[in-house]
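Customer escalation, tier 2.

The customer says the design service returned an amino acid string that "doesn't look like it belongs to this structure." They asked us to rerun it and document both sides in this ticket. The original structure tokens are below, unchanged.
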């Protein structure tokens, strides 16, 4: 873990609007900037309610964002962005829509290709269009970050782009937009938000400046997730989860995730398991595995989630597993349709994600990863 005097860079969207009923503030902001041509990038459901943003001028909508988007989906988005000639691009939806909006904002009309910007800080700037993010789920925290992920179908690997040019000019977080999210999705995305916080908190790069967001994000999930799963119209619970998701986004830039996300990614790229569901299934296994390296922080995490545990690995696993399972989340790979004969390939894929595994507080060997998948099967 790094010390208090270690350098850190923290960035935020210039404007963050938060609260139930704030969705229309995006339109007011766009009008104040004089924007008259906007492209909204969304999935089919959210495309049907773009009017809540009250955007001025001509509004084009790309409504074909797919879960776990791949390069083909990005190509469609870029074609729509080039055709729209927009002054403002809006990501309106979950992490997939917001990530594609980031990439569209820097790649549309640019001589750079996706392959040329994969990795950290390879986008040449400045950005030619404004970027706004409006999340409709409480999970990814993508509205606050500088990273975007898209799957390469040829390799079944997520390509990660990181750039300050992908930071939104404004993020509008209206928890009211999440009231319609089904209970099962609410549970999985809520655990994803919590996993961002926990993996940052227990990270080799963990920093006291981020720890405060990380542990509070976990506490908010512990307090509010079960309530929101039980009653999707519980405004306080929805707001608590939206804030937890935002805090998780704050954690991703300067610290990022670690082993949990590395092991979750192959479930999405190879078997199209929703990102939140994949993270929830993996969460107790990696948290327990890491416990010997970060016992005090693990106890703090479990206390934030409402569970008192010892430093015993089985105690941590049982409590973390129960937290997720009690939300109705599927906790077996076999239950998600992952075949046992793919566990070796999944382990190979996960072990190759060094940008995350190198953050893990305890070394995760390829055999350790394979053993976790087997235990989760």
């Amino acid at each position: 873990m790094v010390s208090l005097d270690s350098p850190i860079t923290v960035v935020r969207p210039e404007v963050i609007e938060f609260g139930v009923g704030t969705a229309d503030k995006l339109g007011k902001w766009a009008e104040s900037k004089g924007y008259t041509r906007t492209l909204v990038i969304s999935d089919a459901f959210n495309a049907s309610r773009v009017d809540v943003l009250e955007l001025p001028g001509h509004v084009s909508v790309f409504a074909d964002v797919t879960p776990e988007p791949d390069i083909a989906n990005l190509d469609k988005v870029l074609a729509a962005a080039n055709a729209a000639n927009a002054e403002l691009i809006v990501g309106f939806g979950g992490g997939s829509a917001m990530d594609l909006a980031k990439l569209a904002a820097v790649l549309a009309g640019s001589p750079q290709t996706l392959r040329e910007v994969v990795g950290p800080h390879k986008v040449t700037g400045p950005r030619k269009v404004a970027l706004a993010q409006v999340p409709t789920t409480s999970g990814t925290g993508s509205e606050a970050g500088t990273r975007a992920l898209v799957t390469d179908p040829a390799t079944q690997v997520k390509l990660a782009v990181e750039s300050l040019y992908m930071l939104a000019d404004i993020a509008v977080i209206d928890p009211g937009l999440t009231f319609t999210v089904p209970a099962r999705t609410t549970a999985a995305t809520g655990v994803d938000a919590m996993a961002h916080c926990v993996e940052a908190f227990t990270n080799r790069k963990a920093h006291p400046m981020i720890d405060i967001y990380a542990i509070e994000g976990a506490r908010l999930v512990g307090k509010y997730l079960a309530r929101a799963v039980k009653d999707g119209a519980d405004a306080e619970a929805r707001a608590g989860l939206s804030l937890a998701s935002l805090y998780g986004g704050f954690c991703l830039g300067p610290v990022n995730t670690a082993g949990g996300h590395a092991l979750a990614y192959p479930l999405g790229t190879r078997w199209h398991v929703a990102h939140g569901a994949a993270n929830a299934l993996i969460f107790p296994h990696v948290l327990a595995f890491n416990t010997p390296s970060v016992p005090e922080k693990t106890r703090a995490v479990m206390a934030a989630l409402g569970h008192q545990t010892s430093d015993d690995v089985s105690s941590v696993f049982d409590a973390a597993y129960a937290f997720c399972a009690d939300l109705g989340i599927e906790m077996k790979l076999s239950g998600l349709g992952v075949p046992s004969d793919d566990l070796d390939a999944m382990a190979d894929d996960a072990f190759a994600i060094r940008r995350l595994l190198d953050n893990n507080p305890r070394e995760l060997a390829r055999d350790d990863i394979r053993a976790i998948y087997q235990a989760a099967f």
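Tier 2 assessment: The sequence is consistent with the input. The chain has 15 helices and nine strands. The two ends are 32 Å apart (CA to CA). Sent an explanation to the customer and offered a walkthrough call.
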